[in-house]
Structures are given as C-alpha cells and as structure tokens.
Specification:
It is a single chain. The chain is α+β, with helices and mostly antiparallel strands. It has a single domain, classed as Alpha-Beta Plaits (2-Layer Sandwich). 42% of the residues lie in helices and 26% in strands. It has 4 helices and 4 strands; from the N terminus they run E-H-H-E-H-E-E-H. Strand 3 and strand 4 form a beta hairpin. The relative contact order is 0.24.
C-alpha cells in the first residue's frame, strides 16, 4: 500500500499539541522547544517509514519523530519538522523510497 503524505505549512500551536500528545516525553520536549515552519506527515508500513525517515534527515535539516496511536501492526506515522523548504526537500527525498 502506498504511503499517505500530508504537508502542513505554518502549523498552529494546536496542531503541534495534537501531534506531541502521541510522542514520548523526551521527543515532546524537543518539538515544543521550537517554532516550526512546516510539518510533513507520512503514514505507511513501518519498514518504509524507517527508510523514509533516514532519507529525510540525510537530505534536509529536519527533525523526524514517530507518531504513535495508529495501528502499529501494519501502519505507523512519522512527522517531519523543519522550516518550509527543508520539509519540502525531506518529503521529496522520501518519494524515491517506494
């Protein structure tokens, strides 16, 4: 199944809060300590997500976090945080994984 990708420019504080509720405390603190220009969301099978996360950080200055709460046996989700152009570059880099 293909990955579902969403791109959020200028996420609201509420959107960031919703995402951080599904993270470990250490990850939450890292995300909440900064204002983000954009967030990329990718939902896919876990093996694909790990490869996509690796490609994202290798190709752009971004922070990638796992978002829990989705069916972890089959699908999971990552959030890619950064400035708008960095998140765009990271999402583009993930397209070459599948």
């Amino acid at each position: 199944m293909a990955a579902r990708i969403r791109f959020i420019k200028s996420p609201t504080d509420n959107t960031i809060k919703l995402l951080t509720k599904r993270m470990d405390m250490e990850e939450r603190e890292a995300v909440l300590s900064k204002k983000w220009g954009a967030v990329g969301l990718i939902q896919a099978q876990l093996a694909d997500l790990f490869a996509m996360a690796d490609a994202a950080v290798k190709n752009a200055n971004v922070l990638v976090m796992e978002i829990r709460g989705i069916c972890p046996q089959h699908f999971s989700m990552i959030a890619i945080f950064g400035d708008t152009s960095s998140v765009e570059a990271a999402l583009e880099a993930t397209q070459n994984i599948e």
